[in-house]
Amino acid sequence: ETLTVNGLAEKLHKDVSEIIKKLMFLGIMATKNQDLDDDAVELICSDYNVTVEKEIILEDTDFDKYRKEDDEQDLIERPAVVTIMGHVDHGKTTLLDSIRHTKVTAGEAGGITQHIGAYQAENDGKKVTFLDTPGHEAFTSMRSRGAQITDIAILVVAADDGVMPQTVEAINHAKAAEVPIIVAVNKMDKETANPDRVMQELTEYQLIPEDWGGSTIFVPISAIKGEGIDELLEMILLVAEMEELKANPNKAAFGTVIDAQLDRGRGAVASLLVQDGTLSVGDSIVVGNTFGRVRAMVNDLGQRIDKAEPSTPVEITGLNAVPQAGDQFLVFTDERKARQIGETRQQQHIVESRGSQAKISLDDLFEQIKQGEMKDLNVIIKADVQGSAEALAASLRKIEVENVQINIIHTGVGAITESDVILASASNAVVIGFNVRPDVNAQKAAESEKVDLRLHRVIYKAIEEMEAAMKGLLDPEY
Ligand code: GDP
């Protein structure tokens, strides 16, 4: 906001004529309703020994405010973005490598594969984008920051090992995010491979093959031998088509940070996934709480490019600071606007340190229910044995409180882990531990993410507490 001579006089509690005289001394002929520039204000104030603190213009920093709705006719098909999940040692990394080797034509294009957080593979001339970090932790930690980038999850299950705890976690994380799952039954080359057992075990989680009357796609593969990779890609393309993944390449780019770090020579380097629009070199961009202009752009083959369309991963330089994975970015056609919004976001970020966003807690649950904000109460249960987890889940589902539904989004055996807390944070859930405790990392994460952990040793106490919280009868904790 600019200040008039009159306005300045009022702020300084001085006579307008006095200010006008001082301005004349400075060679500025001004009337009382004239706007003063910052320098003039500064000079006058220093004359009165008053220091000027410029008010930061609080731009609306919500990207949604600046993104326009698309006309249906402007939307075109875009490649699917895929995350590979599954239990440790079931072959996620091997599969990512195998796809990269067989389906990325690095040699032909004259490039060398570059690890920028994601890569694009090609099958029958159609592209698929794979996120390079396997596992549900990265997936869900991004989601807890408001970013949803995965369109399809590949659930890798080793045929010689079957469904394991992290398989179940992965299923629940994908389901919570409403992402379709394709099952890759891996290690089919092994003599002990038993794909039927895998299919049987997965029916318990509503992943039922088409032959058995379900709708889940199962693809037998051997990641290590590169067998079944073509079929897997075909299935991904099929699901992508059903999902009708579209974007509008003819507008300012929007997307998410997959990875970022400080490079000694190049400054802040960020790997971005363009989700909509086209990102170009020279664009003015706000990335999370950082901003700048896209100085250089490199693709997953290490080639310099100057344009990146939807679903393309790129690495860029030119930001004023290092953003965080999961941050969203938006391009602004007006460079000044980008700077203002970037600066405001930076300020806001300093004020409200990350993670302080209020999450659901049993103590204020009733308030939220009363205000009609809470229709689904998401709960994660960890217990010492599966039987207790199930018993507790069954009892909780039976609690009846007007208009509120309890959703058990995950149950598991063992200590409460960081992954549980991140899932809770992303899904705005409460974690109940029955005869188990959070490990150190989970405790830390719960504090920073403000996730409510409730520990119990007696089932009916856990149920009683939940019921009381929903009815607003909980004794306040001190
Ligand atoms: P991740 O922990 O899920 O990423 O699993 P890795 O990709 O690191 O694989 C774990 C182990 O399984 C490694 O020793 C791999 O060589 C092996 N492995 C992965 N895929 C296959 C496969 O298709 N067949 C066989 N026999 N071994 C595999």
UniProtKB/TrEMBL annotation:
GO terms for cellular component: cytosol. One of its GO terms (molecular function) is GTP binding. GTP binds at residues 86-93, 132-136, 186-189. Keywords: Cytoplasm, GTP-binding, Initiation factor, Nucleotide-binding, Protein biosynthesis. Residues 80-228 are annotated as: G-domain. The keyword Nucleotide-binding applies. It is found in: Cytoplasm. Belongs to the TRAFAC class translation factor GTPase superfamily. Classic translation factor GTPase family. IF-2 subfamily. One of the essential components for the initiation of protein synthesis. Protects formylmethionyl-tRNA from spontaneous hydrolysis and promotes its binding to the 30S ribosomal subunits. Also involved in the hydrolysis of GTP during the formation of the 70S ribosomal complex. This is Translation initiation factor IF-2. It comes from Pseudogracilibacillus auburnensis.
